[in-house]
Amino acid sequence: MEGSRTGKERYLRYLPLISSILIPGSGYVFLGRPMRGLVMLFWMIIFGYLTFHYSSPDISFVGRISGGMAVWFLSVVEVYKTIIRKS
């Protein structure tokens, strides 16, 4: 019954996904898993720190924090898969 949903219901369904893109780890809070969001945020900081300090200074800032951004991307994908499974 996908066609019977209103526009607002569709928006609210994807609210965790939108929030996890804007603020790392916040999508898990909307899904009722705040500890998972905190763990993912912890790993984002750790891997961002490691790649920043072990990469050479001539690499761009985005490249230097790419470890943290990779974990962020994986958390967005996991939030999306959780939303799809629940519907």
Notable traits:
76% helix; mainly alpha; 0% strand
Q: Would you give an account of this structure?
A:
The chain has about 90 residues and is mainly alpha-helical. It has one domain. The protein has helices spanning about 5-15, 15-20, 25-30, 35-55, 60-65, 65-85. The longest helix has 21 residues, at about 35-55. The model has no long low-confidence stretch (mean pLDDT about 90).
Helix/strand layout:
Layout: H1 7-13, H2 15-22, H3 26-30, H4 34-54, H5 61-64, H6 66-86
Helix pairs in contact: 2-6, 4-6
Separation of the first and last Cα atoms:
11 Å
The number of domains: 1
Q: Structural class of the secondary structure composition? A: mainly alpha
Order of helices and strands: HHHHHH
| Unreliably modeled segments | none
Number of strands: 0
Tell me what portion of residues adopts beta-strand conformation. under 5%
Radius of gyration: 16 Å
Chain-averaged pLDDT: 92
Question: In one word, what is the shape?
Answer: elongated
Share in helix:
over 70%
The major β-sheet equals:
none
Q: Please report the number of helical segments.
A: 6
